[in-house]
């Protein structure tokens, strides 16, 4: 199963990309938005890593650890998704309001 290592690598690279973009940004709202996007990819990294470990080892202990990683990854991605939607709406409000 070559698909899971590819998904793990892609999500890790996107996580690092968004973390670097946070450092490059000066606006705090943009930083919060980029941090929420990075949480989504961190969650997907943990999720796919948990699945990959069970597929690779197929033991009871790897099943329990894999389930734990899957649950942590889902919750991290869900929280990042909610925060991303919130900050995206805040950013649109900021763009719509007149600048003074």
List keywords for this structure.
3 helices, YtpI-like protein, 100 residues, YtpI, mainly alpha, elongated, transmembrane helix, single chain, membrane
Structure in words:
Keywords: Membrane, Transmembrane, Transmembrane helix. This is YtpI-like protein. Pfam families: YtpI. The chain crosses the membrane at residues 6-24, 40-57, 63-81. This protein has three helices and no strands. The longest helix has 37 residues, at 60-96. The protein has one domain. By secondary structure, it is mainly alpha-helical. The termini are far apart. The radius of gyration is 17 Å and the shape is elongated. Helix 1 packs antiparallel against helix 2 (28-57) and helix 2 (28-57) runs antiparallel to helix 3. It has helices at 3-24, 28-57, 60-96. Helix content is 89%, strand content 0%.
- Radius of gyration, whole Å: 17 Å
Beta-strand content bin: under 5%
Class by alpha and beta content: mainly alpha
> How many E-type strands?
0
Domain count: 1
Query: For the report, how would you describe the main beta sheet?
Result: none
Shape: elongated
Q: Distance between termini? A: 55 Å
Unreliably modeled segments: none
Per-chain topology:
Blueprint: H1 3-24, H2 28-57, H3 60-96
At a glance:
The protein is mainly α and about 100 residues long.
